[in-house]
């Protein structure tokens, strides 16, 4: 399995992967325009030349970034791919010198295992909620907010070396 930054030819498979879970209400949809515009945010997991997972790191502010559009194809889940994708986004944030990586998610335990810490949603700056206007659950958001503090990044580095 290869973890690498996304290429332009990955946009269609990334779109299809996200769309399937978005239709189940598990994550926000992404249209092609949004994927092309933000392609540099994306990392993919590839097996046999097929994109089987993806994650985006969106920079929100000088001290805050967000993991978005995390998805692993159903037949490859539970094999550590989601973990490796999130570690890659955390390392990217660390390289850029960004202190925090946010996740708004239903997968609370998955992120906690990676060292993300629960935070109060009303403690987050308003800019975090900008894209929520596209969400059907805008008025009844039930996602959990978690933050990874990149300065405590020793654990994530060690996990990768294991
Ligand atoms: C959430 C998701 C990305 C996890 O990817 P994955 O490749 O299956 O996860 P991993 O195999 O890397 O799991 C890492 C660890 O988290 C645990 N885990 C994974 N999903 C979990 C869940 N839903 N609840 C609790 N633990 C979970 C695994 O058991 C594993 O634990 P371990 O290290 O003790 O073995 C994947 O299930 C998915 O794409 N779901 C649908 C889309 C979605 O919900 N995306 C998240 C949007 S924020």
Number of domains: 1
Radius of gyration: 15 Å
Shape: globular
Name the assembly state. Answer: single chain
Examine the coordinates and then state which fold CATH places here, giving the name of the CATH topology. Answer: Aminopeptidase
Distance between the termini: 16 Å
Low-confidence stretches: 157-162
Structural class: alpha+beta
Name of the CATH superfamily: Gcn5-related N-acetyltransferase (GNAT)
Strand content range:
25-35%
Order of neighbouring strands in the sheet with most strands: 1-2-3-4-5-7-6
H/E series? EHHEEEHEHEEH
- What ligands does this structure carry? coenzyme A
How would you describe the overall organization of this protein?
This protein is α+β, with helices and mostly antiparallel strands. It has a single domain, classed as 3-Layer(aba) Sandwich (Aminopeptidase), CATH 3.40.630. α3 links the parallel β4 and β5. The chain has a seven-stranded mixed beta sheet. The C terminus is likely disordered.
Structural descriptors:
162 residues; alpha+beta; Aminopeptidase; 7-stranded mixed sheet; 5 helices; 30% helix; globular; disordered C terminus; binds coenzyme A
């Amino acid at each position: 399995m290869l973890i690498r930054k996304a290429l332009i030819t990955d946009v269609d498979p990334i779109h299809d992967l996200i769309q399937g879970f978005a239709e189940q209400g598990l994550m926000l949809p992404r249209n092609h325009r949004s994927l092309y515009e933000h392609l540099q945010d994306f990392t993919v997991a590839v097996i046999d030349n097929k994109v089987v997972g993806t994650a985006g790191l969106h920079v929100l502010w000088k001290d805050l970034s967000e993991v978005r559009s995390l998805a692993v194809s159903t037949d490859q889940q539970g094999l550590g791919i989601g973990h490796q994708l999130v570690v890659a986004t955390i390392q990217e944030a660390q390289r850029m010198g960004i202190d925090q990586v946010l996740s708004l998610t239903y997968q609370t335990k998955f992120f906690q295992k990676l060292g993300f810490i629960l935070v109060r949603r009303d403690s987050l700056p308003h800019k975090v909620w900008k894209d929520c206007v596209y969400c059907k659950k805008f008025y009844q958001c039930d996602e959990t907010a978690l933050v990874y503090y990149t300065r405590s990044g020793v654990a994530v580095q060690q996990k990768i070396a294991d």
